[in-house]
């Protein structure tokens, strides 16, 4: 017979922890959640801060140069008057000159993301050039080789083509679309703020950057910021409202979305 082991009074069963004692804790390895070392987290933080500086520079450039430059060019084009005979003789290009050109060929091609809408034009035997358009209509699709068109030029570029009262602006024509300039500038500024916040957290708390990580807070915030900027900029351009309404609407909406996501994430972690 195999002798049975009998428990002695007060003895601790095998594998059990004696009363009043705690199991030994695992040694800290110095790695943050997810097993990444703190050095790698800090490098990520530095990279995010550098990206924030680049985005901040793009934001400043958009509002200090790009937007004023496009606005001034559009106003100059609107104020331009037809060229006089003296201005034409002097070669003045700040006025609107009219030319009668001949269509040599047209290209209307859309293949996937690539679209080409061009018209090759000639003037007698002394000039040949190409006008680029944003789409085929309303004039370009009607043009054929040999057609005569009237071109309006400004500052050495063709702005408009006209044939039998049907007009179409070229891509060179200034447009009153400063709302989209402002939307892209706001997008760059918001991305700069997000990268700066996430990068600073990585440097300050490399072992515990939660919840300022890509999943899920960073991803949701990035997509929301992009959606807010374009969701405000495009309707503002269509409605032709002043460009400064775009940052006034987009920035509060993006901040509210960031706070909402943060609150939901905190409540879910508590739950």
Walkthrough of the structure:
The chain is built from five helices and six strands. It is an alpha+beta fold and 271 residues long. The two termini are 56 Å apart. The radius of gyration is 33 Å and the shape is elongated. A hairpin with a 3-residue loop joins strand 2 (114-123) and strand 3 (127-132).
Write a compact overview of the structure shown.
The chain has 271 residues and is of the alpha+beta class.
List keywords for this structure.
alpha+beta, 271 residues
- Give the neighbour order of strands across the main sheet: 3-2-1-4-5-6
- Low-pLDDT stretches: 1-34
Percent range for β-strand residues: 15-25%
The structure class reads alpha+beta
What's the helix-strand series? HHEEEEEEHHH
| Overall geometric form | elongated
Measure the end-to-end span: 56 Å
The pLDDT mean sits at: 82
Count the beta strands: 6
**Helix share bin:** 40-55%
Whole-number radius of gyration?
Answer: 33 Å
Compute the number of helices: 5
């Amino acid at each position: 017979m195999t002798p049975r082991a009998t428990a002695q009074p007060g003895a601790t069963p095998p594998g059990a922890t004696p009363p009043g004692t705690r199991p030994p804790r695992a040694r800290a390895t110095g790695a943050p959640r997810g097993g990444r070392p703190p050095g790698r987290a800090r490098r990520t933080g530095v990279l995010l801060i550098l990206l924030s500086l680049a985005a901040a520079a793009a934001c400043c450039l958009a509002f200090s140069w790009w937007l004023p430059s496009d606005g001034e060019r559009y106003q100059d084009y609107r104020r331009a008057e037809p060229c006089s005979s003296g201005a034409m003789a002097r070669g003045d290009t700040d006025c609107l000159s009219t030319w009668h050109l001949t269509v040599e060929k047209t290209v209307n091609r859309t293949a996937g993301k690539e679209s080409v809408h061009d018209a090759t034009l000639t003037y007698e035997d002394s000039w040949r050039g190409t006008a680029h358009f944003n789409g085929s209509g309303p004039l370009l699709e009607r043009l054929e080789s040999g057609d005569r068109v009237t071109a309006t030029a400004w500052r050495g570029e063709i702005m408009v083509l006209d044939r039998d009262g049907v007009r179409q602006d070229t891509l060179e024509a200034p447009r009153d679309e400063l709302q989209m300039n402002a939307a892209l500038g706001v997008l760059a500024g918001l991305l700069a703020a997000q990268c700066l916040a996430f990068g600073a957290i990585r440097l300050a708390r490399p072992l515990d950057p939660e919840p300022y990580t890509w999943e899920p807070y960073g991803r949701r915030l990035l997509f929301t910021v992009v959606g807010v900027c374009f969701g405000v900029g495009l309707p503002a351009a269509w409605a032709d409202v002043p460009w400064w309404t775009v940052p006034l609407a987009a920035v509060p909406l993006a901040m509210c979305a960031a706070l909402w996501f943060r609150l939901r994430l905190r409540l879910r972690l508590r739950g």
